[in-house]
Amino acid sequence: MYSYLSAEERVAPEHPLRAVRKVTDRVLAGLSKLFAQMYSEMGRRSIPPEKLLRALLLQVLYTVRSERMLMEQLDYSILFRWFVGLNLDEPVWDVTVFTKNRERLLEADVAKEFFRLVVAEAQALDLMSDEHFTVDGTLLEACASLKSFKRKDGDQTAPPEDPGNPTVNFHGEERRNETHVSTTDPDALLARKGAGKEAKLSYSGHVLMENRNGLIADAEVLQATGTAERDAALLMMEAIPGDHEVTVGADKGYDTKNFVEEARNLNATPHVAQKKHSAIDGRTTRHAGYAVSQKKRKRVEEIFGWMKTVGGMRKLRHRGLQLVAWMFTFTAAAYNLVRIRNLSTAIAAAKA
Questions:
Q1: What is the pLDDT of residue 136?
Q2: Which residue has better confidence, 44 or 9?
Q3: 16-30 and 49-61 helices cross at what angle (nearest 10)?
Q4: What is the Cα gyration radius of the chain?
Q5: Is the distance from CB of 348 to CB of 222 less than 8 angstroms?
Q6: Distance CA 244, CA 336 (A)
Q7: Other C-beta atoms within 10 Å of 137: how many?
Q8: Considering only 4-8, 109-113, 328-332, which range has the smallest mean pLDDT?
C-alpha cells in the first residue's frame, strides 16, 4: 500500500510549532544575504543554513541532549521533518557533517543576528517596552570536571594510578583561578552561587529583560568573575537603542556605588534592590515606578528557569566562551519565539 499524505497534512493546524515556524521563516528570510556571503557556489553541497538553524531550534525547544540524538529523532519524527523542511523520504545528515556546518554559523556569529531579528519581530508586534528593563545573571555549569582543574605550572604531587579516570583528593589543597586552569575547558572559571555553596567550573550568563511582557532584549555570556554580572549589565544597557531615559531593575548584587554611577551615566535610572548601606536613596525609591520595577524584576527568573530546564543550559554541552555564548544567545532567541507565540495567541483570543 502507498500513502500520499504529506508532512504538511500530518501536522495539526493548531500545533504550537506552526506559529513558531511562521516567525522563524520570516527571521530566516532576513538572514538570506548573510547566508549568501557565507556559502560558496563551488564545491560540494552543504546543509542549507535555514534547515540547520531550524534543527538547532528543535534541539532547544524539545530538550534534545545531543546532536547525535537530534539526527536520530529527525530521522523518524514527521513533526521534526516538517519543521526543518525535509521530505519524508529524504535522508538525514551525518552528525559529523551537521556539527561542522554549525561551526560555520559560529564563525559568522549568526546567533546574534538571529536573536536581533527575533527581537525586531516582537517589536513590530508591539510586545516590548523600550523604557523599562531588568538585568540579571546566572551561573552556567561548564562541560568540564573538577578533576580537570589543575595547576598552571603543571606541578603534580603524584602520578595518577588510573590516567583515564584518576582518583583526586582535593582536601587541604588551595585551588584558585589565579593558579589553576581546566585542561578540558580553559575558559571556564571556578565560581559559587553564594556563601556555603560548592564551587563549580562555570560561565556567567546574563539577560536584559523588558518589563512589559518579560521578553529578552539582550543576552551576554562572560567568564564567571566576581564582577561579571555588573560588567555584562552595563554592556547591555549601553546597547539599548535611542538616547531616551530608561529604568533598569536589579537585585541587591547590583547595589554598588560604581554600578549606580555608571548606570546614570548611561541615562538609566538604577532601580536596584537596596542593601543595608545602599547606593541609592529616597530620590529614587520614592517614585511609584521603583516599586513596579521591584515587582517586575522577579520575572527574569522565569527566563533562566526555562533556559536551564528546557533549553539545556543547566549543564552545558559545549566548551569555550565563544561557543557557549553562541548557544546561550540562540537559546534566548528560542525563548522569545515561544513567548511571541503565547502572547500572540492570547491577544488573538482576547479580540475574538
A1: 97
A2: 9
A3: 140
A4: 23
A5: no
A6: 24
A7: 25
A8: 4-8
Reduce the DSSP state of residue 223 to 3 states and report it.
strand
3-state secondary structure of 148: helix
In tens, the pLDDT along 116-175 reads 999 999 999 999 999 999 999 999 999 998 888 888 887 655 556 666 677 776 666 788
For the beta carbon of residue 13, count every other beta carbon within 10 angstroms. Answer: 6
List CB contacts of 99: < 8 A, sequence separation 6 or more.
67
Cell 593558579 sits on residue: 179
Q: Which of 193-197, 223-227, 263-267, 336-340 has the lowest mean pLDDT?
A: 193-197
Q: Give the C-alpha separation, 346 to 221, whole Å.
A: 32
DSSP assignment of 85-119 equals T--TTSPPPPHHHHHHHHHHHHHTTHHHHHHHHHH
Cβ proximity of 267 and 104 under 8 Å: no
306 to 104, 122, 186: CA distances (angstroms)? 27, 19, 27
